[in-house]
Amino acid sequence: MSLASATPPSRWAKFLDSDVFASFRRSKLAMAALAVTVLFFALAIAAPWISPQNPYDPAQLDLINSNLPPIWSPDGQSPFLVGTDDQGRDVLSAVFYGLRLSLVVGLLGVLVSGTLGAALGLIAGYFGGFVDTLIMRVADVQLTFPAILIALVVDGVAKAAAGGGLDTNATIGLIVVSIGLSFWVQYARTVRSSVLVEKNKDYVQAGRLIGLSSPVIMVRHVLPNVLGPVFVIATINLALAIITEATLSFLGTGLPETMPSLGTLIRTGNRFLFSGEWWIVAFPGLALAGLVLAINLLGDWLRDALNPKLQ
């Protein structure tokens, strides 16, 4: 068989033969972080099927089962493996359902911030001039404020404007937008710096010569070549987005108690911490810490693996 007729390797085969995959196989910490992250995602997706009860279905709750300790304690009862809260809700089931909402809000927040930041960075880097100056000065101003403060301001202003009449979907959407507006600057600055290099390359000049419009060149040709750092930032920002949502909910300005995110569960359990019911806050807190740590470790590995200076 001639070389010309040989079947080209698939993208999956190319990935398995890449330096990134080789770096992943050498890093036991990255493999463990990925395994833990996948486990949390799997638990969140399978929550309705693996949870002993739906902790937010009043028909499945019984106040007789309230404040039960973990099953290994003398007063523990089956099937409440890690105990119950003051409403008789199984804490483990609440953690599984809380993971679902925290991950959804985190992923959507990263999608909003990444899309907004990448778009603004692409426009600023490609066109330059006044547009570049305006976008970057707005980014510089926002960098002077903590991200959580930006999220608090956006969330508070929107709720005040709505008069407190937000339904479930609107509340989630507001938190997502608040997180998105808090973290877009990193994407914009990174994409802009990459575009400043890419727009002077031959393929961009060739596109202009054959009459391609600026939006086509930007989206089809420049953007795919600057997305590598964006994926690294998105991985790390997923952990930050989850923490931001948990912080907002813990402070009482995020999701209400009827919407079981990890932050909401921690806020609820914090009221019982000093009365001896430590498990109500401990296990949601451990789940949040484990999820954020695993995602951060995965992001750190990805950043190092895609850094050409470390190859």
TrEMBL record:
Spans traversing the lipid bilayer: 29-50, 103-131, 168-185, 229-251, 272-298
InterPro entries: BP-dependent_transpt_permease, MetI-like, MetI-like_sf, OppC_N
CDD domains: TM_PBP2 (cd06261)
Annotated Gene3D superfamilies: MetI-like (1.10.3720.10)
Localization, UniProt: Cell membrane
Family per record: Belongs to the binding-protein-dependent transport system permease family.
The protein, known as: Dipeptide transport system permease protein DppC
Domain ABC transmembrane type-1: 99-299
Principal location listed in the UniProt entry: membrane
Keywords: Cell membrane, Membrane, Transmembrane, Transmembrane helix, Transport
Membrane topology value: Multi-pass membrane protein
SUPFAM superfamilies cross-referenced by the UniProt entry: MetI-like (SSF161098)
Coiled coil: none
